[in-house]
């Protein structure tokens, strides 16, 4: 009997032919998560934004691999048209490169239709069907203009609100809601917002046609002001036409909360690249070369992924994207200017020495100092980095941070973690250093606590007062939410498995690794490689890796198919493992929360939470590594033991919410599987606020990397229980002692023999 059958709860019944629905099957699905039954009018028949049922292919991949092998099927495969070499041909307009006239001809008709717009009611319908909610979180300009009058009005309103109760609040919320023109296809970017032709081509070459929900709303919001499109009228935004509405004076600051894998990267990169291109057309001043946009991400892996994406989108545009590395400088620091003028500065020389010592990029060659320093200053328009990497480069004279007046765009990707106590100080220091009055800020994540919103508003206010910018119009802060906030994506299957003990978890994981060894049951789900396994700590990841190292048979690649990735490895080793995993050479990657956020492995079939995540948000991000861009068939398995019971309700609640979301939005009725039963939710204890805080900070007590009384780590992972291990150790010790005794006896006998021999020798004399 399979014990997991009794103790596990899968969120959906097994599917008939999973191979066809695996994320790694290579087929590109509809990237949208919601609104599949809704036809986005006025999209014409020929328009690529025509709606498809979930799972219906947009196009066949050009290289057809067996479903089980094409792990990381590339979205670009489906695009027949690829960008040609940069120097190929020159555009007749604006000096842009033109790579394909075919694309142009094909898209003319579509562009004409794309220029058609929706009326306000249609906007509302489309945005609601895609579960999009856009509100003005803070309209600073209005606040400042009407301070006195507003105060009196607010006092009156509060009184009325008290009498009328919640209804009034709802009415107020509706008033502040926006309905921008939905962008249902990427071709509309050219017809409506006149983005660079080359940028449009690059998007097409990557295979992007239909927009995801977050792109559908965020791109019009961020590009809208370019043509004065964003107009708020009686609680709604509309395009062109009636000009009686209150118009936002400048651009906007945006706080976007959208599901994992929903294409937020493109949503923030396209407006930045477009803005930099517009700027480069108007500005001929080359002294402005250097970063104009900074994108901060919490890990090196995510930062380097964003750089890659930015480079792909800006091919042939002249816009460059760079990844911040040790030894690079963002701006010239005051001491550099002094040293250039021949003034000796002790701090400058100290720091220079440090930078040289830590720099791995100059291959140990010592160039003359001023030249080296100048050569390392970032010239790329888009700079992507972790907070510490930028801050280290900005610090001078101890803790002073060099200002960055040239930065016009600041993006915090995974904003909630960047503004969490772990990174908060560093992130805010960078934000404060961006002193340009026209700076626009974007905060993006799949999860966002209300404390982050408060912090964002506070930071915007502080910045405003410290820079004394009162003579300039203030941009509103707009919040865009896709789906249900802080919920896991609805297109994956969740399984919460009670494994009782540490041993149980290992057995469970082995069962997932060798599914054919165990007879399949109604509730068992199959998990095909490649998949990620998350542990709570680095020592546990290492221990699990060594335990599973020989589980994959040699004929399937053996131990080379399984790897461990964590922050204690060198950057080079981390990069190699990431590349091998993306190529499909590694099938099982064991890791910590280092890879929980942002990292995009398109064809990942599943995620195993070997250790329960530290919070509901952590669960959302970890499981969001599968089911990217609307791909179906991803699986998320979470093991929990006796020790986890006090905390697992967080995870159960997230799964339950995600299942509800699926069953509501799923016209095919697939969402009716009842994974997390109400009785389980009722039975699980609700963790206190303090417990949640502790858990988030340090994880489950029993698995912390503390030493036991023998000085050994308790984070050990093994199929054997501690009792069995002790017995075994004693047995081994006894065998060893007996062997040693025998050896000693032999030596004694020999020694005695030697004595008698020597005695005998003497006897010969
Ligand atoms: N419109 C689109 N059509 C098809 N694929 C898309 C589209 N937009 C993005 N993608 C693909 O979706 C995947 C996920 O995108 P991205 O990494 O930007 O997601 P994300 O929202 O930032 O996720 P996370 O919250 O995990 O960081 C990428 O492989 C990307 O190429």
TrEMBL record:
Assembly behavior: Interacts with the U3 snoRNA and is associated with the 90S and 40S pre-ribosomes.
InterPro entries: DDX52/Rok1_DEADc, DEAD/DEAH_box_helicase_dom, DEAD_box_RNA_helicase, Helicase_ATP-bd, Helicase_C-like, P-loop_NTPase
Species of provenance: Melanomma pulvis-pyrius CBS 109.77
Identification of the protein by name: ATP-dependent RNA helicase ROK1
Positions of region (Disordered): 1-100, 146-173, 333-370, 687-765
Ranges where the Helicase ATP-binding domain occurs: 245-466
Lineage of the species this protein comes from: Eukaryota, Fungi, Dikarya, Ascomycota, Pezizomycotina
The UniProt record lists the keyword Lipoprotein: no
Biological-process GO terms, alphabetical: maturation of SSU-rRNA
């Amino acid at each position: 009997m399979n014990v997991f059958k009794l103790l596990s709860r899968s969120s959906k019944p097994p599917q008939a032919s999973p191979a066809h629905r695996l994320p790694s099957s290579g087929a590109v699905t509809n990237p949208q998560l919601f609104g599949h039954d809704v036809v986005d009018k006025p999209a014409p028949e020929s328009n690529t934004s025509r709606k498809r049922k979930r799972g219906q292919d947009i196009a066949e991949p050009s290289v057809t691999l067996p479903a089980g092998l094409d792990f990381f099927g590339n979205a670009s495969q489906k695009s027949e048209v690829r960008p040609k070499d940069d120097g190929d041909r020159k555009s007749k307009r604006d000096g842009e490169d033109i790579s394909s006239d075919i694309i142009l001809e094909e898209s003319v008709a579509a562009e004409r239709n794309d220029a058609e717009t929706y009326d306000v009611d249609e906007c509302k319908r489309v945005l609601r069907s895609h579960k999009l909610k856009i509100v003005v979180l803070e309209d600073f300009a209005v606040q400042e203009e009407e301070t006195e009058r507003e105060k009196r009005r607010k006092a009156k309103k509060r009184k009325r609100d008290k009498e009328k109760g919640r209804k009034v609040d709802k009415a107020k919320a509706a008033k502040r809601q926006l309905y921008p023109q939905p962008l249902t296809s990427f071709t509309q970017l050219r017809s409506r917002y006149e983005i660079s032709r080359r940028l449009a081509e690059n998007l097409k070459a990557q295979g992007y046609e239909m927009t995801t929900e977050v792109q559908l709303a965020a791109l019009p919001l961020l590009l809208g002001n370019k043509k004065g499109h964003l107009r708020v009228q009686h609680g709604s935004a509309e395009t062109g036409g009636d000009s009686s509405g209150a118009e936002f004076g400048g651009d906007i600051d945006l706080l976007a909360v959208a599901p994992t894998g929903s294409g937020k990267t493109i949503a923030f990169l396209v407006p930045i690249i477009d803005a930099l291109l517009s700027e480069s057309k108007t500005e001929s001043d080359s002294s402005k070369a250097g970063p104009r946009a900074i994108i901060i991400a919490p890990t090196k892996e995510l930062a380097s992924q964003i750089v890659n994406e930015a480079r792909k989108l800006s091919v042939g545009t002249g816009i460059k994207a760079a990844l911040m590395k040790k030894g690079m400088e963002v701006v010239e620091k005051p001491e550099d200017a002094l040293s250039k003028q021949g003034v000796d500065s002790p701090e400058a020389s100290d720091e220079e020495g440090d930078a040289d010592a830590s720099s791995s990029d100059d291959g140990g060659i010592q160039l003359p100092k001023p030249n080296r320093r100048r050569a390392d200053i970032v010239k790329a328009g888009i700079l992507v980095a972790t907070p510490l990497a930028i801050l280290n480069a900005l610090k001078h004279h101890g803790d002073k941070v060099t200002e960055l007046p040239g930065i016009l765009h600041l993006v915090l990707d995974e904003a909630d973690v960047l503004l969490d106590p772990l990174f908060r100080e560093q992130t805010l220091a960078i934000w404060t250093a961006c002193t340009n009055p026209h700076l626009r800020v974007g905060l993006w994540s799949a999860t966002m606590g209300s404390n982050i919103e408060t912090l964002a508003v506070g930071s915007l206010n502080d910045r405003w007062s410290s820079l004394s910018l009162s003579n300039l119009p203030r941009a509103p802060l707009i919040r865009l939410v896709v789906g249900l906030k802080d919920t896991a994506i609805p297109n994956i299957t969740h399984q919460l498995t009670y494994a009782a003990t540490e041993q149980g978890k290992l057995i469970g994981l082995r069962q997932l690794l060798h599914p054919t060894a165990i007879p399949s049951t109604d509730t068992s789900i199959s998990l095909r490689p490649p998949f990620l396994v998350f542990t709570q700590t680095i020592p546990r990841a290492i221990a699990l890796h060594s335990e599973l190292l020989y589980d994959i048979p040699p004929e399937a690649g053996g131990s080379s198919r399984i790897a461990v990735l964590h922050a204690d490895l060198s950057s080079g080793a981390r990069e190699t493992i990431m590349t091998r995993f993306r190529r499909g050479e590694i099938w099982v990657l064991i890791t910590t929360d280092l890879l929980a956020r942002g990292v995009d492995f398109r064809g990942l079939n599943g995620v195993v939470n070997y250790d329960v995540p530290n919070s509901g948000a952590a669960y959302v991000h970890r499981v969001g590594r599968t089911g990217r861009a609307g791909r179906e068939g991803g699986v998320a398995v979470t093991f929990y033991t006796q020790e986890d019971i006090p905390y697992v309700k967080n995870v159960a609640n997230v799964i339950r919410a995600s299942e509800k979301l699926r069953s509501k939005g799923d016209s095919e009725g697939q969402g009716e599987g009842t994974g997390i039963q109400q009785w389980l939710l009722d039975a699980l204890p609700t963790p206190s606020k303090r417990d949640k805080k502790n858990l988030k900070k340090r994880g489950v007590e029993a698995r912390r990397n503390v030493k036991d009384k023998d000085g050994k780590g308790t984070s050990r992972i093994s199929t054997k229980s501690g009792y069995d291990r002790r017995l075994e150790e004693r047995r081994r010790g006894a065998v060893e002692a007996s062997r040693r005794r025998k050896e000693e006896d032999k030596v004694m006998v020999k020694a005695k023999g030697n004595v008698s021999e020597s005695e005998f020798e003497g006897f010969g004399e």
